[in-house]
Design goal:
Blueprint lengths: L13 E10 L5 E9 L6 H11 L9 H10 L1 E7 L2 E11 L2 E12 L8 H14 L5 E6 L4 H10 L3 E6 L9 E7 L5 H6 L19 E2 L5 E2 L3
Parallel strand pairs: 5-6
Antiparallel strand pairs: 1-2, 2-3, 3-4, 4-5, 6-8, 7-8, 9-10
Bound molecules: coenzyme A (COA).
């Protein structure tokens, strides 16, 4: 695990629980783990978000531009160990359904994975989301990403909405998963105007699944 040179700072408010872990591979050193939402824009964070992503994905899903834009206009959560950033997650709100949050990214630095921190991170994020108007959480994931699927489906009960074939190129399918966080408020349902649909991606239903477009319309197989 490498922590030197990483940004160590307290961001936003500390939400909910924190936990302590002792790492046997670090002489039992204890770390206080917390989840914090970024409330004030700090350009220094752009590098942290991009760097953590580059440690995971060969083709970067981020540019400094998208990371910065989401820091300002989306929601960003940090997983911190003694205030050092060891994980990041960024969320959008769906334009077609403002009650729905989209988990755009969630990543933990390699040396910290497989220790229950992904579970803790997502638990804390969903706690914050249910305090607001968010009723459902949507994400897409590589069907080969077993750690992520284990976390989302088996631990958190996300349900498969469909599979979008070749979403990001040859052999790059994406599973679409959704979790209901809380019942939708009637008042919100009745005041929202429906938005005309424009499917944004070529998508096909997987076996016994429907594939949703961004506008939540079911894309039926021909
Ligand atoms: C996905 C990710 C956030 C999960 O975080 P984590 O800290 O490793 O998750 P946890 O330790 O809380 O484990 C959650 C569950 O997944 C299982 N799991 C962890 N790593 C696994 C692996 N490599 N293969 C299969 N299952 C795995 C764990 O056993 C655990 O289930 P359990 O508690 O029933 O045993 C982390 O692996 C990561 O950052 N991956 C790279 C980025 C990424 O792929 N993000 C998701 C993109 S949508």
């Amino acid at each position: 695990m490498r922590t030197c040179g990483l940004l160590a700072k307290r961001y936003g408010r500390h939400k909910g629980a924190s936990l302590e872990i002792a790492l046997s591979d670090h002489d039992g050193q204890t770390f206080k783990i917390s989840v914090n939402e970024v409330k004030t824009h700090d350009p220094a964070l752009i590098s942290s978000v991009v760097d953590i992503d580059l440690l995971t994905f060969s083709e970067p899903t981020w540019s400094r531009y998208t990371a910065g834009l989401l820091l300002r206009h989306g929601r960003t959560f940090l997983l911190q160990a003694n205030d050092v950033i060891i994980g990041t997650s960024q969320l959008l709100r769906a334009w077609s359904n403002p009650d729905e949050a989209v988990l755009f990214s969630m990543s933990i630095r390699p040396g910290w994975r497989g220790r229950g921190l992904g579970t803790f991170f997502l638990e804390e994020i969903t706690k914050v989301l249910v305090e607001t108007q968010v009723t459902t959480l949507m994400l897409e994931v590589d069907p080969e990403n077993h750690a992520a699927i284990e976390l989302y489906e088996n631990k958190f009960g996300f349900e498969r909405q469909g599979i979008c074939r070749q979403e990001y190129g040859e052999g790059q399918d994406r599973l679409h998963l959704r979790k209901v966080l809380r019942p939708k408020a009637e008042t919100i349902k009745t005041t929202l105007e429906p938005i005309p649909s424009t499917p944004s991606a070529h998508c096909e239903p997987g076996p016994a699944l429907h594939c949703l477009t961004d506008n939540e319309e079911v894309c039926i197989a021909p």
